[in-house]
Specification:
Length: 676
């Protein structure tokens, strides 16, 4: 007996073109197919693909009709998209064809048990109990299946139709390594800025109250320990401390088995957060071989976002920013070491000085560098960039040495805007020169950029939009800048906040595709110039460019702290599993900023949005949630949500990013109550 629904011969299966579909929880308005009974041989001439290993089969039907899956087993990681077992039998009479095969297969009654599940908004999906006659059709017989709806009924057996979900809610979180022991957490309130990142990572442990204060559970049970540890990794202020639990001890695996024979030495190229995250995950997965981390800076991995804020203001020092990596990482640190080449065939890194570092597995996590002006306008120590701790320390020292009172900041992105906030807090006059308009336009769009501009202007920042510096002069006591409108500005110091460029110059000639970063496939494996994955090489963090299939198939880079944590973890998993068994990396990017006391938080990719809508609050109050959507062939897709001073409300949107149809809509009050 077959467990596969017949597919019309004139519409061959399109298993290689499967993509998320918009109507995840809606029954089709028509039967599963509309065509006469098959006249040709069974199975159809077009064979099924091998990507599912024969365990779960299904096809994308014609346009405008939702996809439904039929099969005896729940979806697995081998499917193009991981899904959860949400079962829904449509109120129609689809026909199922049982081919006359010998010997007969197991009856349909042998299918697995399926509990009644809840829709995302808490509504119970209808369930059915097939009749005995429907469970054992004779070979070659057509069966009319008419479900009998009984809400809240457990489906014990029968042929269920399963909608191919776009993404299950739990798939929005990274796959953490479970722990078997409880942990204790504590929060340094002097460091905490209530960004709410910890609540996003572990809402069962951390909670922001209505009044805007942080509450947390000090004693965390074992089943939530992994989430609490992830919140510690993602805290930009390093305000959370954790103790106890199962540390990442070499040889002690808390995850799946690793291929120890294949990897005796794994090298992590890059001493930043993405590299540290990958190294920690390797140990968590039980890798007990040699682990080498190569970093060009002299510091252990540290949090970069505070460099332009708390560090520059003197509120935090280098020790405060250093990530609390486990001492049990047991790794060799090659700090202050420059990489100049990579030979993927011989699996060797070339270091400055002629040294060669062999590897069995490689994680590329060299990050990005600060973008500079094409031509140096003048040779002056009064022009600085800020990317590393050394950059920030140099700016701090130079500003004091120059007794700076007037600072010009070039660039209207996050770095430029946050530098303006810091300088104003230090009592300096600030001119923000931006060649485009408005501020943060590329990230947030025009309307929200105007809100940021109002916040900056209200704080006393002189914002010059659609303006460029046409002439630079070092007067000996400062800098004289001529704008393209003819105005002249005298400044004590200039800081460039023009964005970043990926650190891939050392990979030239390696055979990897390094166009705007290291190009990767969906699993984080680096690909060569022919588009094929390179054995034993993955990339993570700011330097990696990969297609996030949650949105589309266009490779992009994402430069955020939380992304570095998650991609480092996934890259380590992919390295251990290999290209054939690794899963796709489909995260929800999350980032934040602070503009003169206003907390800005975002989930998703606002730059992909074609239109923006205020769904909570108002622009006038500067406290709101904005939803970004775009049109796709499968419906309207929610690509991002941005909150100004509404961290709690933003949680309701994170698990909807990338969806189309019902899950792309604004959450209802009832669904929020159920969630909390």
């Amino acid at each position: 007996m077959s467990n596969e629904a017949w597919w019309p011969p004139h519409e061959p299966p399109r298993h290689e073109e499967q993509r998320p579909l918009p109507q995840a929880f809606q029954a089709p308005q028509q039967p599963f197919w509309e065509s006469p009974r098959p006249q040709g041989p069974w199975p159809p001439q077009t064979p099924l693909g091998q990507e599912h290993d024969g365990t779960w089969q299904g096809y994308e039907p014609a346009a405008a009709q939702p996809a439904w899956w039929a099969g005896p087993q729940q979806p697995t990681g081998g499917m193009p998209y991981d899904t959860q077992a949400l079962y829904y039998v449509p109120p129609v009479q689809p026909l199922y064809y049982v081919p006359p095969v010998q010997p007969p297969l197991q009856p349909l009654a042998g299918y697995h048990q399926v509990p009644v599940v809840q829709a995302f908004q808490g509504e119970t999906l209808p369930a059915v109990r097939p009749t005995p006659e429907q469970l054992e059709p004779a070979p070659g017989q057509w069966v009319e299946f008419e479900p009998e709806f009984e809400p809240e009924l457990e489906v014990e057996s029968g042929l269920e139709l399963v909608p191919w979900l776009e993404f299950a809610p739990e798939e929005f979180l990274p796959k953490l390594v479970s722990e078997s022991e409880p942990v204790k957490v504590s929060v340094d309130n002097n460091r905490c800025h209530i960004y709410g990142i910890c609540q996003q990572e572990a809402p069962e442990v951390f909670r922001i109250s209505e009044g805007g204060s942080l509450h947390y559970t000090g004693n965390v049970p074992a089943n939530l320990a992994a989430k609490a540890r992830q919140a510690v990794r993602c805290c930009p202020m390093q305000a959370i401390a954790i103790s106890g639990g199962t540390a990442s001890t070499p040889g002690r695996s808390r995850g799946t088995a690793v291929r120890r024979d294949d990897y005796r030495r794994i090298v992590v190229a890059g001493g930043g957060l993405a590299g540290l995250s990958a190294a920690s995950r390797l140990r968590e997965r039980g890798f007990d071989g040699e682990l080498v981390l190569v970093g060009e800076e002299l510091h252990r991995p540290y949090s970069r976002p505070p460099l332009s804020k708390q560090f520059l203001a003197g509120e935090l020092d280098s020790e405060d920013l250093t990530f609390r990596a486990d001492d049990s990482l047991d790794a060799h640190w090659l700090l202050g070491t420059h990489m100049i080449g990579l030979d993927t065939e011989k699996r060797t890194l070339r270091l400055r000085g002629g040294e060669r570092l062999p590897y069995d597995g490689l994680v590329i996590a060299t990050g990005v560098d600060a973008k500079r002006l094409p031509l140096s306008p003048v040779v002056s120590d009064r022009i600085r960039t800020v990317r590393t701790m050394a950059d920030a320390a140099a700016i701090q020292q130079a500003m004091h040495a120059a007794q700076a009172h007037h600072v010009v900041i070039l660039g209207g992105g996050f770095v430029g805007c946050e530098l303006a906030c810091t300088a104003r807090d230090q009592g300096m006059d600030v001119t923000l020169v931006v060649h485009s308009a408005p501020l943060l336009r590329r990230v947030l769009g025009g309307k929200l950029g105007e809100v940021v501009g109002r916040i900056q202007a209200r704080a006393g920042v002189d914002v010059r939009l659609s303006t460029k510096i046409s002439e630079w002069t070092d007067t000996g006591s400062g800098l004289r800048l001529r704008l393209d409108d003819g105005e002249v500005i005298d400044a004590d110091f200039v800081v460039l906040g023009l964005g970043s460029v990926p650190r891939t110059e050392w990979l030239e000639g390696s055979g990897l595709d390094v166009t705007d970063g290291v190009l990767c496939d969906t699993t984080c494996h680096a690909v060569d110039l022919t588009g094929r994955p390179v054995p034993g090489v993955v990339a993570a963090g700011d330097v990696a460019r990969w297609p996030n299939e949650r949105f589309d198939s266009t490779p992009r880079r994402v430069e955020h702290l939380i992304h570095a944590v998650e991609m480092g973890q996934h890259a380590a998993d992919s390295l251990l599993h290999g290209p054939a068994e690794a899963e796709m990396f489909t995260p929800v990017p999350r980032f934040w900023s602070e503009q003169h006391g206003t907390r800005l938080q975002a989930v998703g990719m606002p730059a992909l949005g074609e239109r923006m809508e205020i769904v909570e609050g108002s622009l006038r109050s500067e406290s709101f949630v904005a939803a970004y959507r775009r049109d796709t062939p499968r419906g309207t897709q929610l690509v991002a949500a941005v909150a100004f001073d509404m961290p709690r409300q933003l949680l309701d949107y994170r698990d909807r990013i990338g969806h189309t149809g019902a899950l792309a809509q604004t959450p209802t009050l009832s669904s929020r109550r159920r969630r909390r």
